[in-house]
Write a structure and sequence with these properties.
Layout (H helix, E strand, L loop, with lengths): L10 E5 L12 E10 L12 E2 L18 E4 L2 E8 L10 E3 L1 E3 L9 E9 L5 E9 L11 E6 L6 E7 L1 H5 L7 E5 L6 E7 L3 E6 L2 E7 L14 E9 L14 E15 L2 E2 L6
Antiparallel strand pairs: 1-2, 2-17, 3-7, 4-5, 5-6, 5-17, 7-16, 8-13, 8-17, 9-10, 9-16, 10-11, 11-12, 13-14, 14-15, 17-18
Amino acid sequence: MKIYLMIIMTAGVLTAAAAPKNKNAEKPVRWKLEFTENFSRSRLDEKVWTRIDKGNVDWNRNMSLRKDLVEVKNGFLILHGVKNDDLKADPRRVLTGGVKTQGKVSFLYGKIEIRCRFENQKGAWPAVWMMPENPKKGWPDCGEIDIIERLNSDDFVYQTVHSGWTAKNPNNPPKGGKGRINPTGWNIYALEWTSEKIVWKVNGVETHSYARVGDDPARYPWTEPFYLMIDMQLGGSWVGDVDESTLPCKMYVDWVKYYGAFQDGKKISKKQL
């Protein structure tokens, strides 16, 4: 039986990125597993997750609070993208489901892992990403971390950070990269995040990184607590039109894990609960 929200003291080791003006950045970072969500209940745990409502931009234009779009079954979180069968109740042609930890669980540094798989359909845009819990500035200056975004039936995912700096300087350093995946099977996506560097991995292999450069906070705004979002998006200017004849489509999540970051035996951040 899966264990729900367990606290386990296990650790992995990673060497953090070096920053000339920060001696701590040269010290090894140790990860300790603190949070595991195995979706072992028969329904969504509302102490941790909230359903994502509709908005007016590409990624959330088709989001819906309809309960059947977010399902917890047999130890999996299943997010649905469907053709809308009741246009009188909601005029949108397609509807999608997603969840977030906003206002309930947020993270500052550490490692986040998620094991999930996607179905392969035109116009599908599943994503796992993070936004600041209490943004002090508007987007993109507040910062955004895209752990993964996958389009259509691609055999790779996009991994990106957004900030005011990257909007003007997307290649100094490169704000995004790609990671190869098994397009029809399960993959483990990881984000290793410290005050000096963000590293992305797919199935244990490093695929992209973004290091802090200089002391300007605008160049590295990812120093505040962020919450997690997981959503099965459909359609938009980036992914293109949806082939409604192939719907429904699903995104499956097996588990989510969070590891705290430690240096010299001391936690360098707190998971905000």
